[in-house]
Amino acid sequence: MTTQEMTASSAAPAPRVPLVEMRNIRIAFGGVHAVDNVTVDLFPGEVIGLVGGNGAGKSTLIRALSGAHPADEGEIFIEGEKVAISNPRDAKSYGIETIYQTLALADNVDAAANLFLGREITSRLGSLDDAAMESATREVMGRLNPKFRNFKVPVKSLSGGQRQSVAIARAVHFNARILIMDEPTAALGPAETAQVRDLVAQLKTEGIGIFLISHDIHDVFDLADRISVMLQGKLVGTVDKNKVTKDEVLAMIIMGKKPDEVSEKDLAELR
């Protein structure tokens, strides 16, 4: 082996570049810092659970990424490159899509019409190409939820898990690389929650990164890889889900203490 080859083989691997990095983000409302110097990152195929009590700042932070409310200070990087996100159109141009808790579906039309709502495929004569839209819907749904069969019915008649499938398929079809999911299992039963869990697992295999906003700590432990906790606009910390307990995360949410700062007495008070 030559000296050059030895040097190359002993070199440290290049650090992974985050899919998203939000660095030193600040957002204020009337002098009150709703988000105060927060830095979080997200890697391809990863789910970050973003948790905290009401008013913690998690939704405001994510609105800076979605373009709904630009940050007052701080920087956003997509795959290592600094970007400017001033509105939702900017966010979409970087492959950022938001799945709101309400799902923003048109209840009276079917899955294909929802998938292409506002971005319909038309024929050369200018009429809607329903066949092309249904074909594309079946293709993307076949990847995400192979058990989905209700292509011809209004989405209002679908289960909560199936409706989530339609909303996620709409984002993925238009090349989302970064998904923001707001309380994706709220008001869902166990079977529907399992459907969402399967959807998230499939998205991860495709390298899509997900910010998951949730109040449900059980939901977060089921779906997330890492958990970022906010309290009163500040980031308490980001932890590996597999290296902490639910009680330790609750201590972060309620007391603002990191796992290595929590005493047995603190944990006892939470039980």
3D architecture notes:
This protein has 271 residues and is an alpha/beta fold. It is 36% helix and 23% strand. It has ten helices and ten strands. The chain has helices at residues 3-10, 58-66, 88-93, 111-115, 130-144, 160-173, 190-205, 217-223, 246-255, 264-270, and strands at residues 20-29, 32-42, 47-51, 73-78, 81-83, 96-99, 178-182, 209-213, 226-231, 234-240. Strands 6-7-8-3-9-10 form a six-stranded mixed β-sheet, sandwiched between helices. It has a four-stranded antiparallel β-sheet with strand order 2-1-4-5, covered by helices on one side. Helix 5 crosses helix 6 (160-173). The model has no long low-confidence stretch (mean pLDDT 90).
How many strands, which pairing sense, and closed or not: the largest β-sheet? 6 strands, mixed
The mean pLDDT is: 90
Radius of gyration: 21 Å
Shape: globular
Helix-strand sequence:
HEEEHEEHEHHHEHEHEEHH
> Beta-strand level of the residues, as a percent range?
15-25%
The termini sit apart by 60 Å
Structural class: alpha/beta
Low-confidence stretches: none
State the helical fraction.
25-40%
Which sequence of strands runs across the widest sheet? 6-7-8-3-9-10
Quantity of strands, as a count: 10
Provide a count of the helices.
Answer: 10
